[in-house]
Design goal:
- The protein is of the alpha/beta class.
- 52% of the residues lie in helices and 8% in strands.
- The protein is globular and about 70 Å long.
- The structure holds zinc ion.
- Zinc ion binds next to helix 3.
- Zinc ion (ZN) binds next to helix 3.
Length: 380
C-alpha cells in the first residue's frame, strides 16, 4: 500500500512526503485524528519511507525487478524490499499486540511483572502501544526508548519510534519530555492521538502537529464503493455515517453485527416508549449474558442504542438530514413522535447507568430491563 493508497487528507500527505524528500521531516511529530482516520497507517508509511532500501541511493537495488517509478518529486516506499517487508509485519498492530501480550502471559510471574509490551518488526523501528491491563504507556516503555534512541541505526536507515496512544502515565510523560528535548538527527518520534490536548503543553510545544481531518460522508461512501463493492448501497451508507469520518473505521465496520445489535436496540426502545409488550423485551435481554462474549455484545448494543438516540434527537429537532440510521428512518420517525427532548436525555442517562453497571459486573439482562422499564414508567 503506497502513499497514493492513503485516502483523503491529500494536503497533509503531500506535505509530509515533501519533507521526507528534502530530508526535512521534524524529529518530533504529533499525528492527530479521530479513531480510524489512519494515523497508524500513516506512521508506518513514514517509517517505511525512511528505511526503504530502494530509496537509499548509495545501495544497489536488492532485486533485479525495477520498482514502480515514484511520483515525480515525492518519495514513496517500494513495499517490496527487506526493510518494507519487515515493517509490513507490524501493519496489523492489534494482532502484534495480542501476540506480545500472550507471550508475556506465558512468562514466570517475576519476569512477567517486569516485561512491557513493545512491538518491533524492524531493527530500527519500535512501536510503543499502551500496556495492558491499564492500557497506558508506562515509564518503563519510555525508558526503553530513552536508553536506545541514541544508538545509531543498525541498517543505515533511520530510527523511528511510534507511540500509538496518548494515554501516558504521569511519570512516563515526564520521561518522554526528556527525549523530546534532544532527539538525535537519525531518529524520529511519532506520537499518535485522537486529542492532542491530552499531551502536556510542554510536549506539544516540542512537536510539529499534523491533524488528519475526518472525511465527509459522501467521500467515505465513494471510497467504500471501491473497497467494499460486496456491500449493498444501504450498508455502505450506514458504515459511512457511523464511522465519524474515519476511513479505517468505515472499512472495518461490521454491518452484520451492527444490524443485529440495532434490532435488539429497537426492541428495547419500543418497550421503553410503551409500544412493545414486555415479553419481547425479556426475550431479547435474556440473550445478554455474563462473560467476555456477553460484554462485547452488550457494548455493541449500547453503541447502537446511542446512535439511535442521537437520531431521535435529530428527528425531534427538525434535523432529519443528520440521521445516520437512514435505512430505518420511517421506524425512527414513528418512535420520535412518541418521545420528547426530556425523554431522550433521560434515556441517554439511563444508558450511562447501564455502562457503570457493566463495570461493576451487574447482571446485564437485568440492567437492560431496568433501563427500558424505568423509561416506560416515566413516560406514562
Ligand atoms: Zn522498500
Amino acid at each position: 500500500m503506497p502513499f497514493s493508497d492513503f485516502y483523503g487528507n491529500e494536503e497533509i500527505i503531500t506535505r509530509l512526503r515533501e519533507m521526507l524528500g528534502r530530508d526535512r521531516l521534524p524529529h518530533s511529530i504529533i499525528l492527530a485524528g479521530p479513531r480510524g482516520s489512519g494515523k497508524y497507517t500513516l506512521a508506518q508509511m513514514i517509517a517505511k519511507t525512511l528505511n526503504c532500501h530502494r530509496l537509499r541511493q548509495s545501495e544497489p537495488p536488492p532485486l533485479l525487478l525495477a520498482p514502480p517509478p515514484p511520483e515525480p518529486g515525492l518519495p514513496d516506499f517500494c513495499g517490496e524490499c527487506d526493510s518494507c517487508l519487515n515493517l509490513a509485519q507490524g501493519d496489523d498492530l492489534e494482532a502484534r499486540c495480542n501476540e506480545a501480550v500472550e507471550a508475556r502471559d506465558a512468562l514466570r510471574e517475576t519476569d512477567r511483572k517486569e516485561t512491557r509490551i513493545l512491538i518491533q518488526s524492524h531493527p530500527d523501528v519500535l512501536v510503543i502501544p499502551p500496556d495492558p491491563p491499564q492500557l497506558m504507556i508506562k515509564v518503563d516503555q519510555v525508558r526503553h526508548v530513552t536508553e536506545t534512541i541514541y544508538h545509531r541505526p543498525t541498517t543505515g536507515g533511520h530510527r523511528v519510534f511510534i507511540f500509538s496512544s496518548s494515554a501516558f502515565m504521569k511519570e512516563a510523560a515526564n520521561a518522554l519530555l526528556k527525549v523530546l528535548e534532544e532527539p538525535p538527527d537519525f531518529a524520529t518520534i511519532l506520537l499518535l492521538t485522537e486529542n492532542p490536548g491530552e499531551f502536556l503543553p510542554t510536549i506539544r510545544s516540542r512537536c510539529v502537529t499534523f491533524t488528519l481531518a475526518p472525511l465527509r460522508v459522501e467521500e467515505l461512501e465513494q471510497w467504500l464503493a471501491r473497497r467494499r463493492p460486496e456491500w449493498s448501497a444501504n450498508e455502505r451508507t450506514l458504515a459511512a455515517r457511523l464511522s465519524n469520518g474515519g476511513v479505517g473505521a468505515a472499512l472495518d465496520f461490521d454491518v452484520a453485527a451492527y444490524s443485529a445489535a440495532r434490532k435488539d436496540a429497537l426492541v428495547l426502545l419500543d418497550a421503553a416508549v410503551g409500544a412493545g409488550d414486555y415479553s419481547a423485551l425479556f426475550r431479547t435481554t435474556e440473550t445478554y449474558r455474563a462473560g467476555a462474549e456477553g460484554r462485547a455484545k452488550t457494548e455493541q448494543l449500547l453503541r447502537s442504542l446511542y446512535s439511535l438516540l442521537e437520531d431521535l434527537m435529530f428527528l425531534s429537532s427538525g434535523a432529519a438530514e443528520m440521521v445516520r440510521n437512514r435505512d430505518i428512518e420511517r421506524q425512527l420517525t414513528a418512535l420520535a413522535a412518541k418521545v420528547d427532548f426530556d425523554w431522550i436525555t433521560r434515556a441517554a442517562q439511563g444508558l450511562g447507568e447501564v455502562e457503570r453497571g457493566m463495570r461493576r459486573n451487574l447482571l446485564r439482562n437485568l440492567s437492560l430491563d431496568a433501563f427500558a422499564l424505568a423509561l416506560d414508567r416515566d413516560s406514562n
